[in-house]
Amino acid sequence: MIPGVILGVSILLTATAAGNHIENALGVDVELFRPSYWLVVLGQFSFAATYVMLLVSARLKKI
User: Fold this and answer.
1) Residues of the chain with pLDDT > 70: what percent?
2) How many CB atoms lie within 10 A of CB 53?
3) CA dihedral of 16, 36, 33, 38, whole degrees rounded to 10
């Protein structure tokens, strides 16, 4: 559970910092970088994709 929490917090902080930087530099508000549903989807996908890749690569090595 701890790696998921750490990943979630790091994605939130990184996305917020990137959103603030883009808004200050370009004056454009990118909604994806604000805490929202899509940011949660991105975080869950990145967390689940690592396990899927590990499992699939282990199965392919057996073949």
Assistant:
1) 98
2) 10
3) 140
**Residue with tokens 């917090």, as numbered in its chain:** 9
Give the residue-averaged pLDDT of 16-33: 85
**CB neighbour list of residue 50: distance below 8 Å, 6 or more residues apart:** none
Tokens for 63, please give them. Answer: 């073949």
Query: In sequence order, which ranges of the chain are alpha helices (DSSP H)?
Result: 2-26, 37-62
Is the Cβ–Cβ distance between 46 and 11 less than 8 Å? yes
Sequence-distant (6+) residues with CB within 8 A of 19 are 29, 30, 32, 33, 34
